[in-house]
Amino acid sequence: MFSLTALTALSLLTSARAQQVGTLQAESHPSLSYQTCTSSGCTTQSGEIVLDSNWRWTHQTNGSTNCYDGNEWDTAVCTDGETCASSCAIDGADYEGTYGISASGTGVTLTFVTEGQYSTNIGSRVYLMDSEDSYAVFQLKNQEFTFDVDMSNLPCGLNGAVYFVEMEADGGMGAYSGNKAGAKYGTGYCDAQCPHDIKFINGEANVEDWTPSPNDTNAGSGRYGTCCNEMDIWEANSQATAVTPHTCTVAGQTRCEGTDCGDGDERYDGVCDKDGCDFNSWRMGDETFIGEGMTIDTTQTITVVTQFITSDGTASGDLSEIRRIYVQNGQTIQNSVTAIEGMDEFDSITDEFCAQQKAAFSDETSFADRGGMSRMGESLENGMVLVMSLWDDHAANMLWLDSDYPLDRDASQPGVSRGPCSTDSGVPSDVESDSPGASVTYSNLRFGDLDTTY
């Protein structure tokens, strides 16, 4: 972005103690309609999408000088989190020109690399809104969520993700007086990884102990993370897919620091289950179920149905099962069945499936330790926000989704092989240069009673 001189900027700092909204680019949310369904039929709802605040231009309130440039804060302005939030603004977005996001009617396409006027953008994350200032919040117990996806253009190393997180409907604007941007500008993100790369958390800039990433020119890591329950409906590329609930001991968006964030060697000491209890058909023993030309053919559009079944068949009952169904070429196809030594045959996620999987794979029981399906059900009942994204992985090259992972274990051990991609694949610099035009399209979002959306 273009900038004014630092001298001019420093002489005009605002005294307001709040995260500001910029006025140099108008914010206009692309429209995206969705449907709510019952046994009587489906009703179309008018919706919008909004770009996450982390992608937005962050500049000084009095002009266009960057507060955040590349992967570093301007420490002359951002001396601490509160001062930075009062001195800096996040601005509106040119969705298609800068970020490669295009929405029309019932569908949205996210393009991987976009060459804008001032910068090169990599990936994106958007949220579904039910009004200009509020995320759409869904209570999914005893309900199902269905969408169509075309991910034929996503190679190894990319992740086209659709998921729910327990964010605040207003993006935290009501809870934190320092947040003047709110959901309209995509604030308030959280997930079970308790990410430290979020620039503004709880209305303050995450500048304390900020360390630029050694291998990502756009990202860094601050003292604080932002945690919440997460339901990964769909993490996928053309070679691999997974559906994964992640539980946390905290309710709603929560800022963490230290051990609570579960970083590094303290991974299993934090408030959230970072591993999750995943159902990846390849990892669960069926290497012919989903992929190019397979039973579920990733070269064609796929209808993905996820059901949240309760013990008593009501929205107030305990969550007992997360079931996956596919529809393709007019055929309804049930999920694959596990074929792992030491495990029963499962085709859905239950507490028993998770217990047997963790034992068979010698994995930590962090999902069960943080409440398992019951805890996930509580979050679904509280209400969650829909997220759609496209990203590459500077931490592990997406090997945990589509290749052998972790690399220090033999690939012949149960649970290590997760997809057909090479362990040399997924390096972000390679993916960004080799597949800049990669994209994913999500369409025909439907929420409703069981067996009414497909």
Automatic annotation (TrEMBL):
It catalyses: Hydrolysis of (1->4)-beta-D-glucosidic linkages in cellulose and cellotetraose, releasing cellobiose from the non-reducing ends of the chains. Residues 411-440 are annotated as: Disordered. It comes from Schizophyllum amplum. Belongs to the glycosyl hydrolase 7 (cellulase C) family. This is Glucanase. Pfam families: Glyco_hydro_7. Residues 1-18 form the signal peptide. It comes from the Eukaryota.
